[in-house]
Design a protein that fits this description.
This protein is of the alpha/beta class. It has 16 helices and 19 strands. It has a 9-stranded mixed sheet with strand order 9-10-8-7-6-5-4-1-13, with helices on both faces. Strands 14-15-16 form a 3-stranded antiparallel sheet, with helices on one face.
């Protein structure tokens, strides 16, 4: 029996570790020429990310980089700049390198018309001709903006995975978060994807939203199960009103308490497990036949900006406004404001403006943190082999910090394993190895709460 009152003491600001170091460490000390040099010298397979930043209106819970518009010409203009950015990218990148993964995020990618989506996909295929036969090509979709014509274009463009944003099926919660989305709308979108042969469908839910209760989210899970999707991504709402002004619209007294959120999370894990899904990493669930499940079993699951994936070892290239790229020893981010983004492209340059060069220590700690976040385990002997360190001597102060979470982890001379209860606190466990966290100690407005 979990003592939820006791767990509350572990609720503190902490990263989600879609990267390490986190984006808060990015700066202009990693310059444009640094990025170009790494693009030109890279040899690894490629993973591509395209950011489609537009939405018609604000969903108040959303923490993404979004531009609100109702003008088709704004979307068409952005597609033109994406096409031009790809042309510039092709001058600095060997586009014959194999592409093993591609993802469209937003915003709302399907807020773009079928014609505009087709233009983007054709530009990508013109630039990158060497997609692997098993490439994972995915798109985030708002079910409120999906037509048959769009689905046809996505399928013809090679999309084989889709992720539908739902968040919550409770009407009161939907009104509060400014996202009215009846179950039938989502159901029709899932059926349309199935009709077009999409074999991997994910559904996003969020717990911790205003007006949610244990009972209301229990009903949302039961309703979502009727969609029979292949994966669920069930996220802890990141309340960061100091960053996202729309979140200030919420009455914070209506947000579920940490105890309630933990109860919701525990029930979610049990409910989905009882109904044929397996917990994958921190916030994903998949059916046993899914490749994520198989990757978890053999310890090859990876975590990046797109979540959990089986496609490790690739260089991530970010295209579009605010997109982030990742290589063996760097992260690189594009401009966040449209004026600067367009100015760079107009000048014939990639719109990269900051990033970070990973030191050997960063690479070591990244390997430790990402293994814990993705697989809930760390092979200490493998870390010793890869990095040539005396693990217990090198991480002695970090392991002392981990002792405070000792009931949630098992440490031997060969490995660290997070137990079933500890998975609820895996962000806290990973934070023990984060050398940058010391400068955020005592700061409230740095990261969202871990619980």
């Amino acid at each position: 029996m979990i003592d939820f009152e006791k767990f509350v003491k572990f609720s503190k600001p902490g990263p989600r570790y879609t990267s390490y170091p986190t984006a808060l460490e990015f700066s202009d000390t990693f310059g444009y020429e640094d990025y170009i040099k790494r693009l030109e010298n890279g040899t690894s397979p490629l993973s591509l990310y395209f950011h489609m930043p537009f939405c018609r209106s604000a969903c108040y819970f959303c923490g993404c980089n979004v531009i609100y518009t109702s003008k088709e010409e704004n979307l068409a203009r952005y597609v033109e700049f994406l096409e031009r950015e790809l042309e510039i990218l092709a001058r600095h990148l060997d586009c014959k390198r194999q592409v093993i993964q591609m993802h469209f995020g937003g915003g709302t990618p399907t807020f773009f018309s079928a014609n505009l989506l087709e233009r983007v996909l054709k530009a990508i295929r013109k630039t990158f001709a060497n997609f692997s036969v098993d490439a994972e090509i995915s798109c985030e979709i708002d079910p409120r903006f999906l037509s048959r014509e769009q689905m046809s274009v996505l399928k013809d463009g090679g999309i084989n995975r889709v992720s539908f944003g739902v968040q919550d099926f409770d009407e009161n919660v939907q009104k509060e978060i400014h996202r009215i989305q009846p179950f039938e709308t989502t159901k029709k979108a899932v059926e349309l994807a199935r009709e077009f042969g999409i074999k991997s469908i994910n559904c996003d839910l969020i717990y911790g939203l205003p007006l949610q209760s244990f009972g209301s989210f229990e009903r949302t899970l039961e309703t979502a199960l009727r969609l029979d999707v292949d994966r669920f991504a069930i996220f802890n709402y990141a309340h960061v009103p100091w960053i996202k002004k729309s979140m200030r619209k919420f009455d914070e007294s209506t947000l579920p308490l940490p105890q309630t959120k933990l109860q919701i999370l525990k029930h979610t894990m049990e409910f989905l497990t009882q109904n044929g899904y397996k917990m994958i990493g921190m916030d994903h669930y998949a059916k046993p036949e899914d490749e994520l499940f198989k990757a978890l079993e053999n310890g090859t699951l990876h975590r990046n900006f797109q979540g959990y994936t089986t496609k490790g070892g690739a260089n991530l290239v970010g295209v579009g406004l605010t997109s982030i790229g990742e290589g063996e020893d760097y992260y690189a981010q594009n401009f966040k404001d449209m004026a600067s983004y367009e100015a760079a492209v107009n000048a014939g340059k990639l719109p990269n403006f900051k990033g970070i060069f990973l030191s050997e220590e960063d690479k070591l700690r990244k390997a430790v943190i990402m293994s814990l976040m993705a697989n809930f385990t760390l092979d200490i002997l493998e870390i010793k082999r890869r990095f040539g360190v005396d693990f217990f001597a090198h991480f002695e102060p970090n392991l002392r910090e981990l002792e405070a979470l000792g009931e949630f982890v098992e440490i031997s001379r060969e490995r660290i394993d997070v137990n079933a209860t500890g998975t609820l606190l895996v962000r806290n466990i990973a934070m023990c190895f984060d050398q940058y966290m010391v400068k955020f100690k005592g700061e409230k407005n740095s990261f969202s709460k871990t619980v």
